[in-house]
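Researcher: Sequence recovery benchmark, item below. Answer with residues only.
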């Protein structure tokens, strides 16, 4: 599975690099924005299908609620009648889940591109990344704590092995290298495995948006870390909160409208709706706190585009229904 996700990540990296060098005007944030727009356009047919499925479910919900009320004390009969009802109406309740299953590997693969842009986007040789890593550790600019001093001493002369170890133990070491390159470009100039073009590419590559939001920085809730680096950590947490907030709004918009219920059924429906409403934002918060804020930026863009798309499609479908 990891090999498949890595292959998707390489594909996305190539697409991102193409956008970066053309319509992205060599701006990382703009390239990520345009990539997200392209992704939404590609998945538009699936989004249309999902919305139609949701609307169909809303139409069937009143009758389905009556079945649930009628057989609430007989679980086996309830399942039997529910499946019979779906078959009669030619409705597949799992058909709306397809876009979600497709989006999950996309998010994971995009995480690879964001955390390792040298490998996935810029196609920098592993030996070159390994040599810059060793130079940074030897100069005291990069910690080797994640792999251990003894392991580091054993492999530091094998740059490819250094690259492999740091890739598996320190998820953000390439992001850290970009920060070091900004301060000490000589680790690029002195790298024997880089040609002139790659050296210029690395020194000019910028993960910042509006010179404020460093999309390579992971957000944190720890006051001590925020106080130590407010210029990077505060913008990162702002992006994460935007991602969480827009996820909540988009989820609320896409949830089907439930018919009015009474008594215990009303309580169970409300509890179910509330749990569905909060699962996605909480997942966004949890994942966002462990990944570079570039992923939060992607989520925010994707959520805003999804919100606009949902509104537009809902309006279109209502017009189609109202038409004679």
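Model:
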């Amino acid at each position: 599975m990891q090999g498949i996700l890595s292959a998707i990540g390489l594909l996305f990296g190539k697409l991102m690099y193409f956008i970066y060098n053309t319509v992205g005007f060599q701006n990382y944030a703009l390239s990520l924005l345009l990539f997200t727009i392209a992704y939404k356009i590609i998945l538009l047919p699936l989004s249309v299908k999902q919305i139609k499925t949701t609307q169909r479910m809303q139409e069937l919900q009143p009758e389905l609620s009556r079945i649930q009320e009628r057989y609430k004390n007989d679980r086996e009969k309830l399942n039997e009648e529910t499946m019979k009802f779906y078959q009669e109406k030619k409705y597949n309740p799992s058909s709306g889940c397809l876009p979600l299953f497709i989006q999950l590997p996309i998010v994971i693969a995009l995480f690879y591109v964001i955390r390792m842009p040298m490998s996935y986007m810029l196609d920098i040789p592993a030996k070159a990344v390994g040599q810059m890593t060793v130079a940074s550790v030897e100069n005291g600019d990069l910690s080797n704590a994640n792999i251990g001093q003894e392991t580091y001493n054993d492999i530091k002369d094998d740059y490819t092995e250094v690259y492999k170890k740091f890739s598996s133990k320190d998820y953000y070491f390439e992001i850290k290298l970009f920060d070091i390159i900004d301060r000490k470009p000589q680790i690029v100039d002195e790298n024997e495995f880089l040609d002139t073009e790659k050296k210029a590419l690395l020194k000019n590559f910028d993960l910042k948006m509006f010179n404020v939001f460093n999309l390579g920085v992971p957000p944190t809730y720890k006051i001590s870390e925020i106080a130590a680096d407010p210029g990077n950590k505060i913008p990162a947490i702002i992006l994460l909160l935007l991602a969480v907030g827009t996820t909540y709004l988009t989820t609320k918009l896409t949830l089907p409208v439930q018919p009015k219920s009474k008594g215990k059924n009303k309580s169970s429906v409300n509890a179910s709706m509330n749990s569905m409403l909060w699962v996605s934002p909480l997942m966004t918060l949890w994942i966002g706190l462990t990944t570079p804020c570039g992923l939060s930026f992607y989520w925010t863009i994707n959520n805003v585009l999804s919100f606009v798309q949902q509104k537009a499609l809902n309006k279109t479908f209502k017009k189609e229904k109202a038409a004679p």
